Amino acid sequence: MDFEPWWLIFVPVLFALGWLAARFDIRQMLRETRSLPDSYFRGLNFLLNEEPDRAIDAFVEVAKLDPETTELHFALGSLFRRRGEMERAIRVHQSLLNRSDLPAAEREHAQHELAQDFLKAGMLDRAESGFEQLKDTRYALPALRSLIRIFESEHDWPRAIEAVKTLQGLVDEPVPQIVHYYCEQAQSALSSKPADIEAAHKALDAADHALSAIDAASSRGAMVRTAMLRARLALIEQDPKRERLYLESVMTDAAEYSGLVAEQVLANYRAANQAEAGLEVLQKQYERHASLDLFNVLFRELRVQQGAAPAWTFARSALRSHPSLLGLDRLLEAELANPEGGADHVPVPGADLTLLRSLIHKHTQRLDRYACRSCGFQARRFYWQCPGCNAWETYAPRRLEELE
Predict the structure, then answer these.
(1) N vs C: which end of the chain shows fewer Cβ within 10 Å?
(2) What's the predicted TM-score (pTM) here?
(3) What is the CATH number of domain 67-171?
(4) Where is the signal peptide (predicted)?
(5) Residues 235-271: pLDDT tens digits?
(6) Burial level of 121, CB count in 10 A (0-12/13-18/19+)?
(7) Residue numbering of the annotated binding site for Fe cation
(8) Which residues carry a binding-site annotation?
């Protein structure tokens, strides 16, 4: 294709059009910039200088001067909520909802933000009401998840179960904690005076049905809890064989939880005048899957059945195989209870074992705890739901020292 000289005419024309477009954009930008209050730029400056408190004050002033800046209102409300200034967050979002000209989409957004404010402020009844109003909106899914959290905190297990079922109808995902909801119902029925046997059976049957729909790896703890409650129910119904079956199924199918059922296993054998056989069962379990909880039960039972010397021998052997301060604490306890020791005992000349044990015991009190894998909350007893973050099955069935 040949070049035509008259094509050069288009060069200055295109340049002129570009120049005009640039001037128009610059003027438009200058007009928009001049329309912004000075507080807006002061706020940006404070943010750049890492002065968030003064920046917030400046942006609040902008919002007062220009009530139409809904995005700024949302940003301020969220910022107040993250900082824990719930009263200010609620006021910002309520002011948005009070506007009659607010579009429907932004009204739903404001309603969702306000419900979250109430939830974080602990105003559960108002939060629940706010989330209920969002069921038929684009915020239905997060609102439903928040409602489940509210029902959990209120221990309203029937409503929590219904909410989970609704959630499963909206999204195809497993919700493992529903098994624990049924277990909570069963536990409540068994704890009532007198125990509501029929309600406990019904709740545990529902728990088993829910377990069948969940991946086994993600429901190990729920399976153990269900078996433990079945064992407790069998004990109330005076069916020791069925109780033993459920307890030993835990040691077989989830050996890491053996320490949680060891006391009940011993009590079951003891009630049948088979205490020695029960001790043997736990000793074999410890050889297969050692844990501090199981060690503690075995140590105490050895002292009861066989005396301090065998308990000392067991503690020393366990300490050699699985070194731990908690094990040493139990070893010193046996040594102090039986200064003579066994045939192979070699006394420590001049050793103040009472002082040594008291020093070690202070440290073991810190290590003798369970810890949440999610938030790190520590407790002396085992929880299925963490009291700190409310997550389910985040406590490993092992003491803190075993996890370090």
Answers:
(1) N
(2) 0.78
(3) 1.25.40.10
(4) none
(5) 999 999 999 999 999 999 999 999 999 999 999 999 9
(6) middle
(7) 372, 375, 386, 389
(8) 372, 375, 386, 389
